[in-house]
Design brief:
Layout: H1 16-26, E1 31-35, E2 45-48, H2 49-65, E3 72-76, H3 81-92, E4 96-100, H4 106-116, E5 120-123, H5 128-136, E6 145-148, E7 159-160, E8 163-167, H6 168-180, E9 196-201, E10 211-215, H7 216-226, E11 235-238, H8 245-257, E12 261-264, H9 271-278, E13 282-285, H10 287-303, H11 307-322, H12 328-331, H13 333-336, E14 345-348, H14 355-364, E15 367-373, E16 380-383, E17 396-397, E18 402-406, E19 414-419, E20 426-427, H15 431-437, E21 444-452, E22 458-463, E23 468-469, E24 475-476, H16 478-485, E25 491-501, E26 508-516, H17 518-523, H18 529-543, E27 552-555, E28 576-577
Helix pairs in contact: 1-2, 1-3, 2-3, 2-6, 7-8
Length: 578
């Protein structure tokens, strides 16, 4: 622990166009983006920073020639090089990106694009059928142009509902020709960094998403100030959905500005193999990924009969580290090979992460930096540091970001409020919702409960919308109980909520709904899973305040429904009980 722990060097980002230009100048011989056209391909395509700059500029020039400057442009599809170029090109010409989740139903995609008044849609192969369906049903009424970022789009060169369909490669070729012939429109434009630049719809774990309006100043300053906190390594693997700010802002904006190579994953089912093959030195993840990785470590050790040995070696290694001897990379080399052998760091955010998982990876030689962010803050608010961390905390606020606790209780816990250059402009076409989340002093109310310690470190208790309020006025944060239950062997996933009786509508019962790790329990010889978990819950209840006690244990035979950020969608859970 070091209160004077230094900030790292970072690159100041003025705007998206400047970011792309300066990265090409600062890292002329480095790889910016790497990827495979198809996962089965042997060849990894590597795009240098100057080539990336040219591709963004040429796409931007073509968009301008098509009359799309200062317009809203939707981007919907899988993560790809084309998605990345489109994201930067749209903002580099002063237009507004509207990133859309490709997994949404067609009517929701149409709703977002039409409500925001997008004039063009840039789409990937995974969204092509939905785009066709929407047009056939008379949707996307504001859209005049379609641009495919897929190399083999069936719509290329055709007309759909009277709209021209073209490919991003042809568009870039057109832009390159225009630029060679003296078209300097891409550069001859002053970007207003305080204007609306992106409308990002929240993931909607509560069932209702809102359009968060961000400026280029919000995004660029969030990463400029945020990257002071991290000593990032030279290669990462991009596995998060790009339509969320964690995927676009942190993975792309923050990393490319620093000259880091970003390998674009071919999809969730390939991630484990890609980590071994591509050997990233750090990753940006949400807790769900780390939870899976942690379970795989112990499942592999258990199957090999080495679970006990691994635990002993970790204890011995931790003791050696206390006297200055660090042998982790040697002692646990076989475990680290499952992650490519070069992984040093994981930056994690998006939800609460069990401290025991952080400790496990630290014992093996991988540092996990837990942070805190929210779409409305572009997204980063705080983070732990490479060598300056506090257990249980999500770190200290990034520079220029002020945090206060609203209406704290006797424990200092209340709603976390934020003020700074990263805070959104407001919710799109929703002044009422905007007014509700800003107080008279200009602080944004996050909807998260937590507290600050005497040094300003943030600790998150739970989400305001998940809070269980008992008839006696007591507050129960389900996330606290979930964190304890997650430590129970055999718990794969768990959600705690207020069960609603079909008979007594005003009666609240605290329920723990568990998706068990059946394979682990079978290996342990546990056949009565219901009885086992009820016993474990009784032990937990004995350690808690009586009003927090879990009264009902409910097992499920399938994973909880999740959004594309791998967050459990709580609104989809049936909370009724007999």
């Amino acid at each position: 622990m070091n209160k004077n722990y230094p900030i790292y060097k970072t690159t100041f980002i003025d705007d998206m166009r400047a970011l792309v230009e300066e990265a090409a100048q600062n890292f002329p011989d480095s790889t910016a983006i790497s990827y495979k056209e198809k996962y089965t391909d042997k060849e990894v395509k590597k795009v240098s920073f100057p080539q990336w700059r040219d591709d963004v500029r040429h796409l931007g020039t073509a968009l301008i020639s098509a009359g799309l400057r200062e317009e809203k442009i939707a981007i919907v599809g899988e993560n790809s090089y084309g998605w990345c170029c489109s994201f930067f090109a749209v903002m580099a010409i002063g237009s507004v990106t509207v990133p859309v989740d490709k997994e949404l139903p067609s009517e929701d995609i149409d709703g977002i694009i039409t409500t925001t008044g997008c004039k063009a849609v840039i789409y990937g192969k995974s969204a092509e059928d939905k785009i066709k369906d929407i047009f056939r049903s008379g949707g996307l009424k504001t859209v005049e142009m379609l641009v495919s970022i897929a190399p083999d789009s069936s719509l290329d060169g055709s007309l759909l509902g009277g709209r021209t369909c073209t490919s991003v490669s042809l568009f870039q070729e057109k832009g390159a020709e225009l630029f060679r012939n003296g078209d300097n429109s891409y550069y001859d434009y002053k970007i207003d960094v305080n204007k609306l630049a992106s409308i990002v719809f929240t993931s909607g774990t509560t069932g209702k998403g809102k359009g968060v309006m961000l400026s280029q100043a919000n995004i660029c300053l969030d990463m400029t100030l945020g990257m002071y906190n991290f000593d990032i390594t030279r290669k990462t693997l991009h596995v998060l959905p790009p339509h969320h700010t964690f995927g676009s802002t942190v993975n792309y904006v923050g990393h490319l500005a620093q000259g880091c190579e970003v390998y674009i994953s071919s999809g969730l089912k390939h991630v484990s193999d890609e980590i071994r093959e591509q050997q990233p030195t750090h990753l940006i993840l949400v807790p769900a990924f780390l939870e899976v990785m942690n379970r795989k470590i112990w499942a592999t050790a258990r199957k090999g009969g080495k679970e006990g040995l691994l635990k002993v070696m970790m204890k011995v290694s931790n003791c050696l580290r206390k006297v200055g001897i660090d042998l982790r990379r040697k002692l646990f080399g076989s475990v680290l090979q499952a992650f490519g052998g070069k992984l040093e760091l994981v930056i994690c955010g998006g939800a609460k992460l069990d401290e025991e998982i952080i400790n496990t990876f630290d014992s093996l030689g991988i540092t996990i930096l837990n942070g805190y962010g929210i779409t409305e803050c572009a997204p980063l608010i705080s983070a732990n540091r490479n060598r300056y961390r506090k257990p249980g905390s999500v770190g200290t606020p990034i520079l220029a970001c002020r945090v206060k606790i609203d209406n704290p209780d006797e424990n200092g816990e209340g709603e976390i409020c934020v003020k700074g250059p990263n805070v959104m402009l407001g919710y799109y076409n929703n002044p009422e919702a905007t007014a509700e989340v800003f107080d008279k002093d200009g602080f944004f109310h996050t909807g998260d409960y937590g507290k600050l310690d005497e040094e300003g470190w943030i600790y998150i208790t739970g989400r305001k919308k998940n809070l269980i309020i008992l008839s006696n006025g007591k507050n129960v944060y389900p996330e606290e109980i979930e964190a304890d239950l997650q430590k129970v062997e055999g718990v794969s996933e768990v959600v705690v909520y207020a069960g609603e009786s079909r008979v007594q509508k005003d009666r609240i019962t605290i329920v723990a709904e568990i998706f068990p790790d059946a394979e682990l329990l079978a290996d342990k010889g546990i056949t009565d899973m219901q009885g086992y978990f009820e016993d474990q819950v009784r032990l937990l209840n004995a350690r808690m305040a009586p009003y927090k006690a879990v009264k009902r244990v409910k097992l499920r035979d399938a994973e909880f429904q999740k959004n594309t950020s791998r967050k459990i969608t709580r609104f989809s859970i049936d909370k009724t009980i007999d």
